[in-house]
């Protein structure tokens, strides 16, 4: 690791680009705007949720559309990161991504048991899934920034 990488990592984390930093600044209570505060969400999603207001079906449609955006962002960044890494780091990334996919599947299986089947609970599960996807894409973005130094 070059001497610039530890500094860049510290700077990245201090600037709030770490995977969990987006949640740390989230508002609490009834002022919580959902996922619109999460770093990496598209402007189209934020606009869609603003327009949806209290309409749960419209909000769900916004989240479903954003899932596609975040999935494409994650895949694009993952491929770019693979191309930027040396073979040993590339193998570690592949292993980490497989573990993330498995962990995500287990989280979703757990949540399907935890939550009921109401529209609000289904929306919460969709929001959780979108948050996991965006957070992982943010993490890969941070890794790509470091790999390109």
Whole-number count of domains: 1
- The number of E-state strands comes to 0
Radius of gyration: 17 Å
Q: What kind of sheet is the major sheet?
A: none
Order of helices and strands: HHHHHH
Separation, N- and C-terminal Cα atoms: 10 Å
What are its keywords?
mainly alpha; 0% strand; 149 residues
Give a written overview of the molecule.
With 149 residues, this protein is mainly α. The chain has one domain (40-147). It has six helices and no strands. The termini are close together. 14% of the residues are buried.
Fold topology:
Blueprint lengths: L3 H11 L6 H4 L18 H10 L3 H29 L2 H28 L4 H29 L2
Short note summarizing the structure:
The chain has helices at residues 4-14, 21-24, 43-52, 56-84, 87-114, 119-147.
